[in-house]
Amino acid sequence: MTEPDNTSAEAYREAVHASRRFSLPFSRQSWQGRQGGWKGNDTGSSIDFQDHRDYQWGDDPRAIHWAAYARTGQLTMKLYRAEVSPIVEIVLDASPSMFMTETKAIRTESLLLFCLESALGNGSPVRFHAVCGNRIIPLEIDAVRSGSWKELIHGLGADETMPVIPVWKGDGMKVLISDLLYPGDPITLLGAMNAGGGTSVILAPALAEEAAFNHIGNIRLKNCETGQTRIQRITPSLAAKYERAYERHFSLWRETCRRFSASMARIPAEGSLSNALCGDALKQETVEMR
What we know:
This protein is an alpha/beta fold.
């Protein structure tokens, strides 16, 4: 396995530490899938009794309900709830705003690694894709762990449009890691996530400095997606207008997530990942305690 760079090593340490306390929200629903550690919708071989049925030729005699046979003289079978591990499909928004500062870049990567450790720790198969606009790159687990995935997305270029997500399949757990800082109606993306059932989770890394202007007067603004710059005079009224628009943007996302039964949390980029997950992420059930 490729050795991680310093930034990736720090993100990995944070992710491992956080994964000892938190997990992706696997217990939110019953699952269908291969045998594993979560209660499924089908019958199987766990220790949790689910139902019973009449004995049929060829049934395993170890599952015969002998106490019921003693009472009724009829052979019946104990049925147990299956244990399954849902597939976890993780999509990373690879647009430049996700890596605008070193602090945000580390948080983005630590969330990616946290999702990996959480999925593998619960015995779930996992798939990764990086997405920037209509460009989609599958990522291998080794590349995610080592940080070499950053070389794969280097040079994707800027794209201010909402990511196109045709990669989620089935009814497993669908995770999007994105700051959601692009225009457009969330319905398109959440509709794609929700198709086929399963659980939809959005983890949005957030910088405190993105929420408000801390400077009044002439400043040089740079669009991190396109690289274009311009001089803008920031007045108190313009700063207040920006803050209101910023709040409306994320209020729309939260409202739409509720309509689609998706969970969404904004994860502060500042501080440790464990502390960051204790707030909105836990409240909104995008993570759960182990």
